[in-house]
Amino acid sequence: MQREKAAECRDTGPSRQITMKRGYEVLRDPHLNKGMAFTLEERQQLNIHGLLPPCFLGQDAQVYSILQNFERLTCDLDRYILLMSLQDRNEKLFYKVLTSDIERFMPIVYTPTVGLACQQYGLAFRRPRGLFITIHDRGHIAPMLESWPENIIKAIVVTDGERILGLGDLGCYGMGIPVGKLALYTACGGVKPYECLPVMLDVGTDNKMLLEDPLYIGLRHKRVRGQAYDDLLDEFMEAVTSKYGMNCLIQFEDFANANAFRLLNKYRNKYCTFNDDIQGTASVAVAGLLAALRITKNRLSDHTVLFQGAGEAALGIANLIVMAMEKEGVSKDAAIKRIWMVDSKGLIVKGRALLTSEKQHFAHEHAEMKNLEDIVRDIKPSVLIGVAAIGGAFTKQILQDMAALNERPIIFALSNPTSKAECTAEQCYKYTEGRGIFASGSPFDPVTLPNGKTLYPGQGNNSYVFPGVALGVISCGLRHIGEDVFLTTAEVIAQQVSDENLQEGRLYPPLVTIQQVSLKIAVRIAEEAYRNKTASTYPQPKDLEAFIRSQVYSTDYNSFLADSYTWPAEAVKVKL
User: Which positions are catalytic?
Assistant: First the structure.
């Protein structure tokens, strides 16, 4: 079905939207429904007069009503269900609520609550959102796309559910992640929600508990791997770009390490695609490091970085750090020597058995070591980054050692959800005597130090990255997304951190400014795309910022009143 168009009114009033739907169809369509905000004239023209109470509410009053219901609930999962139910019935109001206080609602629609929602997806499931494609649908993906009601899709988030946050294989329950990501595409970046498509590729699950769960909504068999899996992915990518165009942005999300790098390398130069776990996480982590350099007052290449974890997030961050160090004038080999990694088997060193090619890149000459505390004392890092989803991995001893080794140790506990964080903000500040420069993947409450100073921990959330990247890529029609896009994004984010933010302990701009940050990212990406002749939207807009602003989704209601006007009396005179 072709999307029904919204056109600007001649005056400065609301946009006018034209729909052929009438009666209950209007109220049941979340793209159209305004609830009791429909005027009397709209109710009469749309044949919904009498289907609503005889009350007329403005959108602000509706937001207030939702907030009252939100506050009545004490469980975050219930709050998640409330907001998702709102999204299912009134899309504009859902995004108006989200953007009214993004700092308050982001932890509900995304991390950390979305992790719990995915674990309980069978209970939370109310109405299907997105497209579910299974391994049994090979050879039929193209016609399945015809089932989706929108013909114009500019952004897709796809997962196979094998590595959901730090929770592991959640199979079909992982659909909560693409849904949540795309909600932030709109709330934080202004990408139009009806041009977004969440996709679950269900190839089974190796999670025994899910296979035995009577409420599980996915295929009940072990994961299909090998050639059949690859064939499904190839067909999906070809079908999507055939229907929606080569400019359609395809974001890979929460694929297991074994597939994440492989698929990224396979598709990155053929399609408009990126992997948020690798590249988005890298960008937000490097943004935090660039901001931290204003506190340590030195260069990134002056630091020694130690990773707890060597999966896709760690390797993505490490590769972008190398790129950032090279930009400072350091050779690639010299940059790599500043980076060390620890995986489940210990320190990654040359000669260690069973290292992947990605890990070998960061293997150095050194004796094998297994204990993280011993490794910290031996390597003497100035930056410690946790991305292994091992809760509490940064012990009191490790934090104290980091403080003993450095005047201002940089400690990033980036694992999600909160239960998987390597340490809390309070632990970091306490055991480093308030000198630690801290960032986390999930939000932590402010911490008041013994001297009375209150610090606000920086949350290195990927939502600083992917909405702005998506808006920029879509706006200028970028065909391929290179690593330079993510370094540029990191630089823009770091530039938005004020000196006052740094004094408060924040390494990222306040979340309340995230829409402005996303816009600046999008403009920088578009500027560089046109400069490098990699954009495909032509002619180039004279004012890029104004052009991109014009693409941003409005959360204000449209008017459904018919365009009514009169003709000259003579023209409408009835002829006998």
Answer: 110, 181
